[in-house]
Amino acid sequence: MKHLCSSKIIFLLLLFSNTLFASLVDKSAVFYYGKNISYPMVGIHDYIVVEANKTTSYTHGFSLYKDKMYARVDLCKEKKILEEEIDSLFQKKFQNIYFDASSNVCSGEEIDEKLHYFYAKYLFSKVMINAKIHLSNEILGISYVVVVEEESSISEDIIAKIKEYNLDIIYIKTTTINNLENMKNDLEEIQKRGMIPYITNRSFDIYGLSSKEAIKREILTLVDTSSIDKMLLPAHQNGAIVFEYLGYIQKLYDVGDGLPNPDKMQQYAGVVVWLNRNYDSSSEFVEWILELKKREIKVVFVNNFGTDMNTFQLSQLGINIYDGNNDAKKKIIQQDAMISYEIEPSLSDESFFLQPENSKALLTYVDSNELYSVPSAITPWGGYAMRESFMLELNDENIWIINPFKFFEEALRLKKLLVPDTTTENGNRLLFTHIDGDGIMNYVESNPYLFSGEMILNEILKRYEIPHSVSIIGADIVEDGLYPKLSPKLVALAKKIYALPNVEPATHTFTHPFIWGKIYEGNLDEKYRLKPKGYKFSFYDELDGSLEYINKNLSPKREASTIFWSGDCSPKKNVLEYLYQHNALNINGGYTTINNIRPWLTNVSPLGLERGEFYQIYTGAQNENIYTNNWLGPFWGFKKVLQTFQLTNRPKRLKPIDIYYHYYSGSKRASLNALKYVFDWAVQQDVMPIFTSEFIPKVMDYFCVSIANSGDKWLYEGMHNIKTLRVEDAIQSVNLESSKSVLGIQKFDNHTYIALDTKQKHRLSMQKDKNQNTTYLLSSNVKLTEYRNGINIKSYTFEGNVNAKIELHLKNDCRVKSQPKYIKKQQLKENLMLYFNKKKVTVNVFCRS
């Protein structure tokens, strides 16, 4: 029960906050009883109510928001059944209960008894109760929030009684989907009555309206997976990275499942049709597109229209089609600045000519008969870019003709976001490194008495004191594995590696599956994996069992929690789901190999791949096997990864630095020298070195962050591991004085990186870029662990994996004290750099005013 005496304080705080952030401080709620909950849509709300049997409780999104999630249960069930259901909910990690009622047959006495029983049993859970059930003084005393439904006809006297207990009241109103957007006035009326509004449909399976509205971050992308795995789709390989850089999330949807219901698509920022064939029914497909148009959901077609190119079909979208002469010569007469992004456009050999109405032409060509065609345009309903203006396939390379960042942003009318950024923290680019376990037992060519793993231990892991994440293949190590005679030495070697303070353990699985898609009914034929004698394949042995072996036998001090995928690095949904159920992290896959010879954006992979509700996390760059032509040579080839690191830093910082390699790089002098060359370069950069297990959750956060915006005010929820927002607008910056959870800013080229404190929730106020009259953090190579922002003092505590280096922007009347004392400082005007010989430091900044 909330204390009444605190209400005046709370009111004053809210009043003060409202002057800064308007409606973004108003409490809000969402009741979603559908499947596959969208965490970017619900995360900003203070109350999230779901059906537990339709909600997967071992996803990352659930873990981020579980403190404010409520499982709906029917209080009118028989007590024993109800108790079993609630016990099950707590086993699934639900913490809070919404007591609803399917009928009004429960007696008041019975309800009192049940609620007191459950409150006593689950003392630390929060209780939400529907007012139509029964509201005695005792029940109000143990409730956290009360739900009032419009149709339940709860009297104003009852509402006044609830308010006397200082409880939040959620007022639910239902309507038809078509009428939903016309209910904004109802929202305001409910708020004026001192209640949290929620307006939805009668089945509660959409994302309705409340005091706060989440920005739609998900982009539905229609694809065809009938002949190719989604990992290999051009839409995923080439498109996802574009949306991610803009702050959005690609949601692949297979047309083989039929077209999604337009009434259930209000969570999407837009739709992209990226099909390699026509949809089976052209009329059905165009009708679906027109339904999206009615709902003002923008649609973009790429490469083709996914339907027959006939006059009737496209005329409904305002595109006229004319037949041309294939033999007629063509020439370009107009092109927008977003054309010729990486290569000049080609001219189509198609005989049809497109002429859109009321559209912005991005490319126009005309033939010798003066018939013109517009192969790409921004249209009233979205836009399109056909093959000759979209992407060129040349010698197995995919090269962007159109600027995909500008095109998708403009065609889908995407809102410019402060982007949750996985590449940077506290102003510095992130650096991590990880080793796949292959080749630990290979002998070194220059010294046949040394294992390759020993060379990596001595020449890399001990020499470079940054964090290293190191895996083993279980079957290579164990005594009943592939090398029983070598096992004692290999186990001893693994223990030495994992005893280093700068090394974290991981597993490269037990038998290194080569093709994960060949797993059938939990079994993988031995021709698709390593073959230790007598081994029967199991998920347990390959994944969490492999981690348990490391933790019990090789690394008792630092826990292994990460799977480094093996073989084709393409685990399917069943494998990923198993991993999430057992709280393990995962990485590998993707194909980021951009270099000076192949400097195309399509050689940069996305953050990861979603299968079901589970994500496979990709690496930041490919390993030395790729740069050495599958280990055929040149064996110094991994030096070229520096080109990848540089091209993923400018002109856009797309990736952190990820030095990813195998033990067998220690077997040859050329490959080992290449590794040293790469590490020598990396440690000289302005970086924050982290373990791989610290990077993976940042990517998982990215797909779940929820954002709301009102004018120049922003609200972010779910920033548990991501601690940076990126601003692309060079004239925009954060107002540091009113944005209390912001540590500082760092400018890099045309980007601004906003560093955030340790909280998961952040409110920011933006302004035009100008000199900030305050002290703030510019950069650090260690993580923030504590931050206090007082009137005349700012206190920062950092702890990381290397000796600390902190850069601050100081006001003229400020002075700095630190614990321990810095060993060196450099000052350039108002910028102060402090150097320490410790990994944990506290820096206090005192200012006169």
Walk me through what this model shows.
The chain has 849 residues and is α/β, with parallel strands linked by helices. The protein has 4 domains: 4-210, Alpha-Beta Barrel (TIM Barrel), CATH 3.20.20.80; 218-415, 3-Layer(aba) Sandwich (Rossmann fold); 424-698, Glycoside hydrolase/deacetylase (TIM Barrel), CATH 3.20.20.370; 705-847, no CATH class. The chain has 23 helices and 49 strands. A hairpin with a 4-residue loop joins strand 17 and strand 18 (372-379). The longest helix is centred in the N-terminal third of the chain and has 15 residues, at 7-21. It is globular and about 85 Å long. The model is unreliable at 1-22 (pLDDT under 50).
Helix fraction?
10-25%
The biggest beta sheet reads: 9 strands, mixed
- The dominant shape is globular
Average pLDDT number: 93
Write the layout of secondary structure elements.
Layout: H1 7-21, E1 29-32, H2 39-42, E2 47-50, H3 60-65, E3 69-74, H4 79-91, E4 96-100, H5 108-121, E5 127-130, H6 137-142, E6 145-149, H7 156-164, E7 168-174, H8 184-192, E8 196-200, E9 209-210, E10 218-223, H9 234-246, E11 249-254, E12 268-273, H10 282-294, E13 299-303, H11 311-315, E14 319-323, E15 330-335, E16 352-356, E17 360-367, E18 372-379, E19 382-386, H12 387-390, E20 391-394, E21 397-400, H13 404-411, E22 419-420, E23 424-425, E24 428-436, E25 443-444, E26 447-451, H14 452-461, E27 468-472, H15 474-477, H16 487-499, E28 503-507, H17 539-542, H18 544-554, E29 562-564, H19 573-581, E30 585-587, E31 608-611, E32 614-617, H20 624-627, H21 641-647, E33 657-662, H22 669-682, E34 687-689, H23 692-702, E35 706-710, E36 713-717, E37 724-727, E38 732-734, E39 742-748, E40 751-756, E41 762-768, E42 776-780, E43 783-789, E44 793-799, E45 805-809, E46 814-819, E47 824-828, E48 831-835, E49 840-847
Parallel strand pairs: 1-2, 2-3, 3-4, 4-5, 5-6, 6-7, 7-8, 10-11, 10-12, 12-13, 13-19, 24-27, 24-33, 24-34, 27-28, 29-30
Antiparallel strand pairs: 8-9, 14-16, 15-17, 17-18, 18-19, 20-21, 22-37, 23-24, 25-26, 31-32, 35-36, 36-41, 37-40, 38-41, 39-40, 42-45, 43-44, 44-49, 45-48, 46-49, 47-48
Helix pairs in contact: 9-13, 14-16
